[in-house]
Amino acid sequence: MAQQIAFLGLGVMGYPMAGHLARAGHRMIVYNRSAAKAERWVAEFGGTAADTPSQAARDAGLVMMCVGNDDDVRAVASGEHGALSEMQQGSILIDHTTASAQVAREVAAIARTKGIGFLDAPVSGGQAGAENGKLTIMVGGDTDAFARAESVLATYARAVTLMGPVGAGQLTKMVNQICVAGAIEGVAEGLNFAQRAGLDPLRVLDVISKGAAQSWQMENRGKTMVADQFDFGFAVDWMRKDLAICLSEARANGAALPVTALLDQFYARIQARGGGRWDTSSLIRLLRDN
Asked: Which domains does the chain possess?
């Protein structure tokens, strides 16, 4: 059933995610820190652009947000003119930002005092997944709020899973990023080895991707790694932000992340070369230059 929905944050992920909601027939009100981006979205998909998060959220039953980091979450959700200041009792705030579990719990606590539901719902699948409506969404929150939001979230997802209470979605996304970083480095080392051994790397990819070495990173980034193409995809800057969250949580819970810590240092070296906006698969450049 069509609902009035607010979407806060129209970056490379939020822009197409909100577009899927509009195409599904929902009445959309959007907000973006850069007003021009919101106006462009409205010109493409219809709906209304709001001047503040609170204005966008005022009459919406569901409010989605997809912003940059913990500070952005706090500002857009509970800061001056934040969404929670105007949301109605019984509405639900859904945060798609990859952020800390701690900020999810902070915002949920504020929402609870106002009778507003909260779900932390980070996504995996990258820009292509957002554009194609094939994201994986890992959710933290209570079962009632999840039940009310699940079918709407499915508008731009191939899988929507409740992982546990508030914070569990963010913790699951940390696991995802730990595994992704390791997989990228594995593909980078393997391809660099193949090239130095005199093998045809594309033929190697074709063969080993049919066996136990297969991964999303190999299938979607292997050929561009061989071609030394990194002007797209999930930026190194974003990955370092995510890994910092993982490492901070690991210090708190005692988990050992030796490889993740090392890869964070590798990404810092990529940033130092001016590659902060390169795709994360650019790790292979460090190996090629040795």
From this structure: 4-164 (3.40.50.720), 172-288 (1.10.1040.10)
